[in-house]
Design goal:
Two copies of one chain form a homodimer. In chain A, the strands form four sheets. The first copy, chain A, has a seven-stranded mixed beta sheet with strand order 2-10-9-8-5-3-4, with helices on both faces. Chain A has two domains: 126 residues, Aspartate Aminotransferase, domain 1 (Alpha-Beta Complex); 243 residues, Type I PLP-dependent aspartate aminotransferase-like (Major domain) (Aspartate Aminotransferase, domain 2, 3-Layer(aba) Sandwich), CATH 3.40.640. The radius of gyration of chain A is 21 Å and the shape is globular. The two termini of chain A are 38 Å apart. Chain A is α/β, with parallel strands linked by helices. In chain A, helix 7 links the parallel strand 8 and strand 9. At the A-B interface, helix 1, helix 3, helix 4 and helix 10 of A face helix 1, helix 3, helix 4 and helix 10 of B.
Chain lengths: 384, 384
Amino acid sequence: MKKRLFTPGPTPVPEEVLLELALPVGYHRSPEAKEILGEVVRGLQYVFQTQQPVYVLTSSGTGAMEAAVTNLVAPGEKVILCTAGRWGERWRNILKAYGAEIVAVEVPYGEAVTPEQLAQALAQHRDAVAVYTTLCETSTGVGHDIAAFGQLVRDTPALLVVDGISGLAAMECRMDAWGIDVLVSGSQKALMMPPGLAYLAVSAKGWQKIEATPVRNFYFDLRRYRKALADGPDTPFTPANTLIRAQKRALERLRVEGIEQVWRRHERLAQATRAAVQALGLELFARRPSTALTVIRVPPGLDGSAVLKRLEKEYGYKWADGQDTLKGKIWRLSHMGYVDPFDVLGAIAALELVLAAAGMPVAVGHGVATFQREYAAMTTAPAL
Amino acid sequence: MKKRLFTPGPTPVPEEVLLELALPVGYHRSPEAKEILGEVVRGLQYVFQTQQPVYVLTSSGTGAMEAAVTNLVAPGEKVILCTAGRWGERWRNILKAYGAEIVAVEVPYGEAVTPEQLAQALAQHRDAVAVYTTLCETSTGVGHDIAAFGQLVRDTPALLVVDGISGLAAMECRMDAWGIDVLVSGSQKALMMPPGLAYLAVSAKGWQKIEATPVRNFYFDLRRYRKALADGPDTPFTPANTLIRAQKRALERLRVEGIEQVWRRHERLAQATRAAVQALGLELFARRPSTALTVIRVPPGLDGSAVLKRLEKEYGYKWADGQDTLKGKIWRLSHMGYVDPFDVLGAIAALELVLAAAGMPVAVGHGVATFQREYAAMTTAPAL
């Protein structure tokens, strides 16, 4: 049976990128390695939509999130945390570990923090040094209005720090234009790579705060990355250099397609998926859905986890279950990265078959037809 | 021109391991992923020669070194640092960043810290909580007598913490039998993998100290790795799962060859290389040479860096230059990992040709013949 990966990370990797990983390993301090790193940084600047250098860390995305905390916030300093799920919780746990005073703006799972809520928190906490939030909350499928958050934060002394690990290149996100001060991402989502690399860029305002904050770390000390990149381009520690070489390939794909077309493709996939899901009588879980993934509420009376197991066992489709308290209550379908409409079509077809077999009143083919029609209707729509 | 990598990390990766990296990416929380991680941990336990679990970190080796500092040493606590080069300096810089009080036992580049020096330091500093040192100091080619260090440290309250990033599986090293409390390694040396993963194991004595030390970190908090491995086997953060799958393959090779035979192979390669180098009238740089690499002192009057450039440009052989103050003064040839005698033979042949072309009084072929003879003589010698 063919296996098809629809988890919101890791995501499918283009074949030419995988083949790049099978080439012999080179020396990471050679002129060729520096040239490759330079090209990756330029490619990431394009994806981040920033003029700032983008630092390449060999770590999970969480490592770059930690860098975005330890370099920015001294113990006892106040931060505002806009959290809508598990990845907002990840910020909270890292901030706690570093002794930040956290003002939480928190919404129930499935909802998004609103700009009004953030405005109120900023007004009440003028001494906050930073606002931490999440572009795409993959645990619930919610996308935040980062453009609006940026409008609010840019005129305050606070920094806007965004976890874009799973949203970047799947949702519109413009670091410089939107006033994001620190943007974090990772290789294994819409950047079409295996896990292992994390990326991070810092605004001039962000660097001012870093320079005023005592260093409490070594591997995630961003000054070291800034110096190595400026002197090299290089990394301060031996990087996962075969992953960097492969990321260059994947970034070339994004450049050829064009970042606005990439956003538009994800938007189309998401809109058509939502229409299909609703045509099947299912309910979306996210009030303000991200275009990176679609999250479906499991209908009452159905064992959500059992449905996903059948999807995988009978048809090879790997969707993601809910995490922690949401386990068995939601289904998560990623359309991030190397995914096209026919991939998603198959995932919907498989879901229909499993639901029907489970005795749900589903008209097999109706979701698929809806997806097809919706996608076709949008294909001639103007680009973003 | 064929390119051949002889840098002391990264090292050549077996073809079957590279091909593993080109397979489609899977979900990192699946039962299959857990099974693979479990096998990798068992393989690493064999290589570490330990009964303790080995934790898999997605980072450079430096990340695991940081974990071995931040989890073990509270600010102001005293540690003894046995340093013989640049990688001992790496320990020093991390220890400094975490506020340790450092008692340095330091020797000039090319020499090894002796057990007598360590014994003296332990006698003078009975309040030291740990001894940090390096198995193989790749910056100078020196190997430390870790077995003797272990004898000295095991009866004190201090922990023995060893950077085995480049020595492990290239030199005899027995974590449990030698009394090593924390052993750190990385994927890209004798473990025959690209960079991107770091490994770390902790003794029961080490865990006692960790539990008494305040947590100051998140990504490198070893308690998280211990819990995830015990509950899973799993990792606390999204790991570089394609690298883990490939490491499984490389570990299988080590298992089939047998770790004592692997050590013996490196010893043979090192001894034959040393004999060849000396037959060419060249001098070894390391007084107590490691079997992981051979470091040669550049003869007076010769531009060492220019020789290495010619080796690479004319013959495709990539040796490593000295770093920092040793640049141009030494040549470093790795025989770590996926390297056999015919690989090293070629590297020596190329050096002879370049030296002769540079006007050195070298009998071309003499080093190669010596290598061949020495290696053959040892082939029938009993294994370790």
